[in-house]
Amino acid sequence: MRPFDYVRPADGAAAVDIAGGRPGAAFLAGGTQLVDLMKLGVEDPGLLVDISRLPYDRIESLPDGTVRIGATARNRDVAVDPGIRRSHPALSQAVLAGASAQIRNVATVGGNLMQRPRCVYFRDISTPCNRREPGSGCSARSGRHRDASILGTTPTCVAAHPSDMAVAMTAFDAVVSVRGRDGRRAVPLTDFYRPPGDDPRQDVAIGPGELITAVELPPLPFASRSVYRKVRDRASFAFALVSVALALDVADGFVRDVRIALGGVAPVPWRARRAEDVLRGGPARHDAFREAVEAELAQADPLPDNAFKVVLIRNLLLCMLTDLARAAS
Description:
By secondary structure, the chain is an alpha+beta fold. It contains 13 helices and twelve strands. The relative contact order is 0.13.
């Protein structure tokens, strides 16, 4: 462990002022990933700004139906919140699938959204990785890539995004509230994550010293019938090979509306908009579901050892669509 400074600010304004004025500063809440990366030498912040005691831990249902989740709310609180389990059950299911109970007791919502890649090469500083050193190369392309992405990949990186929570929130059009030295702003979660480009180190649309204060889920009545399913190598704590967050609104045998997000298959939580567009307004039957799934997977560009994910996501999504359509009728 390398030496670093530590400060616990009194409020959010002080936190962003301190972090924004010190290059290389990092916010610390649960620390379930940051401390690990510091031990591995992947992260080396000169200053830790402890925000764990700031008043950003509330979970609220607002009068218009919006659900507001504070950034320092613990994952366990999101998973068991009665309101979320009623209005967005897929989010509760995603959090419960995301980690062990011990980690959920400590990890926070903001930290979960800020997760770095779990690629073995990103976490091993002895190997080339464009996420750590742009231009050094992507070791996964010719090395171990069974867990890597099949959608939205670039020559610079094929690592899959690790968060389960973010997949469910992406399906529900979540908006991230951010506070910085220049004020506050709201960023749709679909814009919050940046696909790996020329500088894949910057994987989120958040500047130095900017702090996530909350995440809002806008009203979506049929989200109360949503489902999250995750396929992994073992039933205990493991990252997704593939996962799906799905909300389906069916009436009179037709799809009125739908939300689909995929996990474990892209560098960002993947909103399946092509599939949604094919499904919306069409018949709620198997051939239409298959057409929608194939439209989405037409974009897939798997590597040799993860081509099985194409089949896996096809079967999982078809099964979920069929189950939800049957339940609605």
